[in-house]
Backbone:
């Protein structure tokens, strides 16, 4: 394909035929993304951006994003999606290598053993096919066993022995990055439960569909299929702005929560004043996915945080699915840029370590 496009992956490619930019730290995620974008646009060629899971799991908003407002249409067309001259490609790849080498200065970053997953280890900043197949010096290199297929594919034409090892878990900070911090669905689940319910929502979130099994449907449809046959097994969670006064009389046929997405009129429905802890159903939750409230950042008392030392599961992480929590040096830490103070992790901690 000859055309601009950026493909993002958390998995190392095997025998990549397009330039690859690697990102292992959240601090340079936008720099690497913009670099991949500029290479793709300038040289009219697809580029892969490979981001390791640690950067994805600890993602936070960075304000200095340099994205052009003119970039509004795809460049993959019938003219760009076609076979190209390989000799031209090789010359182009040499230019791309020179561009990236000048931009990054060094080809590698980090020290020690070669590992993509370990942010403190050594790894490539970028890779350009054909041009960089001889960059690895020596007859034997030590690589992370998880990266074996990538290194096998780019060294297959050279006499290089791959000595692989397993990265220590001490170098991995892994978080269950399923939901936004303060997600109202998680607070609803913790307080009233989703068990034995048919879960329906008009909010298009792939995470709640994947994890809890929510089905996407409009409020009109839910009212329609409960009109003649009311069902207490149906739980609908949707935005308050989609509710009309003419629908109020039909809400009695199923259970519901409406997320207040900025609508001042709650149609006389009871409102939940404390999203942290409540028991009522058929009510208006004080905020929605688009306007998550932020309170004081929570803190972890390392003396009370003992689940890791006891070799137990990470109760707060597994219960809250919050990306603001991560394992760090034998305890749980809180990413202050992500934490919204919803207190869900506090509810799940059996040792009272989070306040």
Residues:
């Amino acid at each position: 394909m000859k055309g601009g496009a950026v493909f993002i992956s958390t998995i190392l490619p095997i025998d990549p035929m397009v330039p690859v930019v690697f990102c292992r730290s959240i601090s340079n995620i936008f720099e690497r993304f913009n670099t991949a974008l500029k290479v793709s646009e300038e040289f009219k060629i697809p580029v892969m951006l490979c981001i390791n899971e640690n950067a994805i799991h600890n993602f936070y908003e960075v304000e200095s994003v340099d994205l052009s407002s003119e970039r509004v249409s795809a460049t993959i067309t019938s003219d760009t999606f076609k076979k190209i001259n390989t000799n031209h490609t090789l010359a182009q790849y040499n230019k791309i290598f020179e561009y990236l080498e000048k931009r990054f200065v060094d080809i590698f970053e980090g020290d020690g053993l070669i590992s993509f997953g370990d942010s403190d280890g050594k790894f490539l900043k970028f890779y350009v096919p054909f041009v960089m197949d001889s960059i690895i010096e020596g007859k034997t290199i030590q690589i992370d066993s998880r990266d074996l297929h990538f290194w096998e594919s780019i060294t297959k034409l050279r006499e290089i022995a791959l000595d692989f090892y397993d990265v220590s878990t001490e170098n991995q900070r892994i978080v269950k990055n399923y939901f936004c911090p303060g997600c109202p669905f998680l607070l609803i689940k913790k307080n009233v439960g989703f068990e034995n319910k048919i879960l329906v929502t008009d909010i298009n979130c792939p995470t709640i569909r994947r994890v809890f099994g929510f089905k996407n449907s409009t409020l009109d449809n839910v009212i329609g299929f409960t009109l003649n046959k009311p069902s207490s097994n149906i739980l609908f969670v949707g935005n308050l702005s989609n509710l009309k006064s003419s629908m109020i009389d039909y809400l009695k046929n199923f259970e519901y929560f409406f997320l207040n997405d900025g609508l001042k009129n709650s149609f006389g429905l009871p409102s939940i004043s404390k999203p942290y802890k409540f028991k009522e159903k058929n009510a208006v939750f004080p905020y929605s996915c688009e306007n998550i409230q932020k309170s004081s950042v929570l803190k972890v008392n390392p003396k009370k945080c003992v689940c890791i030392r006891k070799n137990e599961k990470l109760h707060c992480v597994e219960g809250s699915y919050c990306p603001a929590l991560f394992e760090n040096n034998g305890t749980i830490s809180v990413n202050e840029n992500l934490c919204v103070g919803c207190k869900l992790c506090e509810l799940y901690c059996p040792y009272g370590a989070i306040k």
